[in-house]
Amino acid sequence: MIKNKEYYQIDGEISADFGQAVTNPIIKISTSSAGVESSGLLNCEYNIYISAEAYESGKYFFKAENEGQRIVNFTYSVEGVPSWSWATYKEDQKKIIADTFGLELDKVTLVEENEEENE
User: Fold this and answer.
1) Which of 15-19, 52-56, 84-88 shows the lowest mean pLDDT across its residues?
2) Are 17 and 67 spatial neighbours (Cβ–Cβ below 8 Å)?
3) Exposure pattern of 31-47 as b/e (b: 16+ CB <10 Å)?
4) Cα–Cα distances in Å, from 11 out to 28, 51, 65, 76, 90?
């Protein structure tokens, strides 16, 4: 389970890996820069939740598909987010999600959880 304090609300549809479209899902992503100096790639792990209720209960969905290809945990070129750093990663992850899942950037909204939501 990904335990960071933010998630991304999608305004639109994502195709699940079994072919069904999921409307307005939540994506939680964890991106690691370990090894990026040698590979140039960020390592990304994600979960998709079909609704806010599913997110709150911790029931994540299946993996997604884009252009007929199943998107498992994936890598993303750091060149796509040249400002990548601790200070910018939340906004950069929006671009990573949009690019990876075939979405417009304005369809991906960062939501930061407050402490009460995590208790």
Assistant:
1) 15-19
2) no
3) beeeeeeeeebbbbebb
4) 14, 12, 17, 22, 18
Q: How far is the C-alpha of 50 from the C-alpha of 30, rounded, in Å?
A: 18
Cβ–Cβ under 8 Å, residues 61 and 47? yes
> 34-40 — which CB contacts under 8 Å span 24+ positions?
36/78, 36/84, 39/75, 40/77, 40/78, 40/79
Rounded to an integer, what distance in angstroms lies between the CA atom of residue 20 and that of residue 32?
29
Condensed to tens digits (0 to 9), the pLDDT of residues 19-74 reads 778 899 999 999 999 999 999 999 998 888 888 888 888 777 766 767 777 777 88
